[in-house]
Amino acid sequence: MASDLVHLYMRIDHLPQMWCPGCGNGVIMRDVAVAIQELIEDPELDFNREDFVIVSGIGCSSRAAGYLDFNSIHTTHGRAIAFATGIKFANPKLHVVVLTGDGDCSAIGGNHLIHAARRNMGLTVIAFNNDIYGMTGGQYSPTTPNGDKATTAPYGNVDRPFDIANLATGAGASFAARGDIYHARETIDIIKQAILHKGFSLVDVYSVCPTYYGRKNKKGDAVEMLKWQKEHLVPTARYYSMPESERADKKLIGILSYNDYPEYTDEYAKVIESCRKKDKK
Ligand SMILES: Cc1ncc(C[n+]2csc(CCOP(=O)(O)OP(=O)(O)O)c2C)c(N)n1
Question: What is the CATH classification number for the domain harbouring 92?
Answer without folding.
Answer: 3.40.50.970
